[in-house]
Design brief:
It is a single chain. The chain has 331 residues and is of the alpha/beta class. It folds into two domains: 141 residues, no CATH class; 155 residues, 3-Layer(aba) Sandwich (Rossmann fold), CATH 3.40.50. The strands form three sheets. Strands 3-2-1-4-5 form a five-stranded mixed β-sheet. Strand 6, helix 4 and strand 7 form a beta-alpha-beta unit. The longest helix is centred in the first third of the chain and has 15 residues. The protein is globular and about 60 Å long. 31% of the residues are buried.
């Protein structure tokens, strides 16, 4: 089967004028969809409720509350009127074998921590059900497009000779954190990419288990670049002083590596350190199978792991905003 072709549905999301409203959203021009002539200001009452966001983060949200939160996110991102109508049109135009890619450009740091991936819109009508969560539909994807005041990283052209695409898989499961089946996860990733082949390019993987900071540094600063980086493990945050703000405390995202292979004690590697290594290695895609690796803070938007990688010009990052440990909401 040929790869699914997606229609880009570009949304620019920013703060409402004068702070009067939940947000302001505009549909940016694309040939297949068109655009809005003026941005849409979403009323303040449509904003996601803080108590629901807290319940989601602490995994105490019920299914009904989960849907309520998802509907408010959809009201902000796909408000009733021209934008929602254009989305339905794009979905129909894409057809059964096509799809719609929601490319969300978030211009306001206060809106970045919101879990936009949970948006809920029941296009078919009828009773609420899981099918209303749009990203469970294989014909719909959502990509956060980080607006940066600099040229975007240049991707390699498929016209050039790529040969093997090199992927580093690194895993760690420190003592004191929930144990992980690293071997099984790495085996699944290796198996899933073994038969990858596009235009003659294949994926050659190398893996490191019980990885330390020095292990990771040696691998990523070797003579050959890595195109992909996949981390299997835990993410965490650590509190440190911000000396540029008079020593005020702030949180910084980290990947939990090992300080000692035998004792398996933890060594939290700060987001910026990870980002610099991946940038030096030429990584194009980072997949972070670690809780809180996608965590964002409105005041320090680049201090989470995903944010730091973006700031260091890693073109694509897949990360987890919350803790993901076999959880499903109660009815």
């Amino acid at each position: 089967m040929s790869p699914r072709e997606y229609i880009d549905f570009k949304l620019y999301l920013t703060a409402a004028p004068d702070g009067k409203g939940a947000c302001q959203v505009a549909l940016l021009p694309t040939p297949e969809v068109g655009e809005t002539t003026v941005p849409v200001v979403v009323p303040a009452e449509s904003a996601p409720k803080q108590e629901l966001l807290a319940q989601l983060a602490h995994k105490s949200i019920t299914a009904r509350q989960w849907i309520e939160l998802g509907k408010s996110l959809a009201d902000c991102l796909l408000p009733e009127g021209i934008i929602r109508e254009r989305f339905k049109y794009a979905y129909g135009r894409a057809g059964l074998y096509g799809g719609v890619r929601l490319r969300v450009i978030i211009g306001d740091h206060n809106l970045k921590p919101l879990p936009w991936e949970y948006l809920y819109y029941n296009m078919l009508g009828g009773p609420d059900s899981m099918r209303g969560f749009l990203l469970l539909n294989p014909r719909i994807s959502l990509v956060r497009h980080e607006p940066l005041p600099c040229p975007h990283p240049t991707l390699l052209s498929t016209a050039t000779e790529l040969g093997d695409l090199r992927m580093l898989i690194a895993g760690a499961s420190p003592i004191g954190l929930p144990p992980l089946k690293l071997g099984r996860e790495i085996q699944c990733i290796t198996k899933a990419t073994r038969d990858f082949s596009i235009e003659g390019a294949r994926i050659a993987s190398q893996h490191l288990t019980n990885v330390t900071r020095s292990d990771l540094t040696r691998a990523l600063t070797g003579p050959e670049p890595f195109h992909f980086f996949h981390f299997v493990g835990h993410g965490t945050t650590q509190t440190k002083a911000d000396w540029f703000a008079g020593g005020a405390l702030k949180d910084e995202g980290c990947l939990a590596l090992l300080a000692d292979k035998k004792k398996k004690t933890m060594d939290p590697m700060p987001a910026d350190d990870v980002a610099r290594l991946l940038q030096l290695a030429g990584v194009r895609l980072a997949v972070l199978g670690a809780c809180y690796s996608g965590w964002r803070d409105a005041r320090y938007p680049w201090d989470g792991v995903a944010g730091a990688l973006t700031a260091h010009e890693i073109p694509a990052v897949v990360a987890m905003q919350y803790e993901v440990m076999g959880w499903f909401p109660n009815p």
